[in-house]
Amino acid sequence: MASARRVRSDQGRIFPLATGGVAVLVVVIVLGIGWTLVSDSRLSLAKFGLSFWTQKTWDPVAGEFGALPFIWGTLYSSILAMLIATPVALGIAVFLVEMSPRFLRAPLTFLTELLAAIPSIVYGLWGVFVLTPLVRKLEMATPPWMRKLPLFSGPPLGVGLLTAALILAVMVVPYTATVTREILKAVPGSQREAAYAMGATRWEAIRLSLFYGRTAIIGAVMLGFGRALGETMAVTMVIGNNPQVSASLFAPQYTMAAVIANEFTEAADALYLSALVEIGLVLFVITIIINALSRLLIWRVAGGGMVKKAAAPAAQPIAA
Amino acid sequence: MPRDLGPAYRRRKLVSTLVTGLCFASILLALVPLFFILFFILRQGLPALDTAFFTQMPKPVGEKGGGMGNAIVGTLILTGLAGLFAVPVGVACGVYMSEFRQSRLSSAVRFAADILNGVPSIVVGIFAYAVAVLPFKRFTALAGGLALGIMMIPLIVRTTEELLALVPGSFREGALALGATRARAVLTVLLPAALPGILTGVLVSLARVAGETAPLLFTSFNNRFFSTRLDQPIASLTVQVYSYAISPYEDWHRQAWAGATVLIAAVLIFSILARLMTRRLERLGRS
What we know:
The complex is a heterodimer. Chain A is mainly alpha-helical. Chain A contains 14 helices and 2 strands; from the N terminus they run H-H-E-E-H-H-H-H-H-H-H-H-H-H-H-H. By secondary structure, chain B is mostly helical. Chain B has helices at residues 7-45, 51-55, 69-99, 104-118, 121-133, 141-166, 169-177, 182-210, 237-245, 250-286. Chain B starts with 6 loop residues before the first helix and ends with a helix. At the A-B interface, helix 1, helix 3, helix 4, helix 5 and helix 7 of A face helix 1, helix 3, helix 4, helix 5 and helix 6 of B.
């Protein structure tokens, strides 16, 4: 009896220690990633300092490493993707919450979230063989006077910033749409009722709901943006991988994730590798900031529950 | 029926109808690429799927035929390794967070898991390279499994925590009232009750990481030959599809499509399975 009791009380202490110890491991991994990135990019950090991010020349053979083209390409493609994806994602969320007939709601939700489950490499394969030729046709059909503008200059290659942004847009739509859907669901019914009672039309009532959740919706858009910044394979396969700072949508460009994917195994000398790790470090820091900010914005309106749903729509076994 | 309320009202009504239409259009706009992608993958990939694809090894350039047998086995091994690492860690972590909801460690872990979930996969690859490749000066299956496992952890943590929260409080109270310790209540009552859901979550996240390419590029690398050794580079479906897709050979493109079909099929099967499972659990929860 006494021994049984002792075993029990031991269990009482062992249990939180054992599970808590494992939980600490998750924190350690995140810190470890940060520490590894900093320590492995020391060479490049020390040699180039801030000029790393303002130099345009990326010439590993000559030992010149300027990362401006990559950060430019990453921001350009991701911002363009969000410009395309945001209205669509908001439309999807509004339709699913406010308009859809009941029987369509579950299947449509499932299908839009399926977009998040398709592997990046499959998007890339499709992008190379299907989307790129389509974009090339579109580029060739662009009237000559438009081609003179810096936005559309350059030969119609098909691969380039526009193709990358289009693929990214498709890939991030489900993330923004899922969170926005949860936000709209969290808007109190009294808001809607008040609007209708004042004689609002359906759109006017919806606009009020959107306005009510505006802070969190900005968070939802940023969550998609964070995904777009870090997306690797699909972008690598269609953006053209040419380190240049160009305003043209048709120009082949390069992103931070893509240059790491392409050149990491080829980086022969320590400085080259260190420069690539520094690009990874900055990507890591940017995505952390964007993700933390978006979570903060979403939490303020709707509480923590929906952030979890947002992070991996199709991997989420308990769909709302 | 309201009578005609004047031109201003008619205009507002028209705008409202227009916006409703636009919202419906955006659903279609998102579904078009989905079906477009599925259609092309199946059209190009299904004809290329034969028994040779599953059983044979890659042939050298110029020789027709061959398959991705080694890559399929490689992907199974890599996801297996990821699961072996991530499932115990993720479940224990999820249990801790659901048991000690208020503790400071719980909120730190929750934040860390969220951060980890947002870390670009290529950055996870760099980490695994620094930890598991550089010290041994060799690309290994273990390093690839580690990278995939790290990506899987936040998914498992979230699933476990949420499903444990769904188990009715009376289960725990019953166990505690019978004199069970907290650990015993969790291990013998709460976890078994949540098990079907957790298993589904595990399957879905396995399918998820099986589709990852970027973290494998410089951890497990690639291998032209059949290998099951964990201390050697190993082939994987995704990396193989990537290297074939960017190659200039028609026959390799054909096989890339076939590989993509297998990946998509796995994702679809597991997503639908999870969906059905969720429905059943929800019905159970309600009754």
